[in-house]
Amino acid sequence: MKSSKCLVLLVVDGKSKILLEVRQLEVILLIGAGLLIRTLVEMQRAPLGFEPAGLYRATILLPDDRYSTNDARGAAFAEIRTRAAALPGVAQADWSTGVPPELGVSVGTLQIEGRETKNTGREFIGFNMTAPDYFKLTGTPLLDGRLFTTGPEAEREILINQRFAQEQ
Question: Taking CA 38 as the corner, what is the angle to CA 32 and CA 42, rounded to the nearest 5 degrees?
Fold first, then answer.
């Protein structure tokens, strides 16, 4: 079986020119590689939705036998947060149950006050729980509405992403 050849002119950054004699399959592979590289470069330039510079992450797992209640776990994380914020060079410390793009998942129904429920009760709802100043710490911009408040009412507050808001 004879494979046909063709000439290919590659232009990189509008300057470099490379002339190659290649087989058709090689042309397809070169085009695919070029598209992959362009996609990776564009992904690196895409906004993350938060400012990662200077952020550090630690995963902390509390033993269930010692921290079996929500109050005990809350007190432990509050103490960890206080101690971390007191470390030299730390400007702010906060917590979240996940860092984007990680999400916790719940299966159930989300009821919006004053609206009929569209859910069947089997939907997966992605979420993260955070401290009130988490978005300030990460440099995540607020597009609309307001951020969390502090106090007892804060436990019932949620922030939603733009996509969820548009679907409602």
Answer: 145
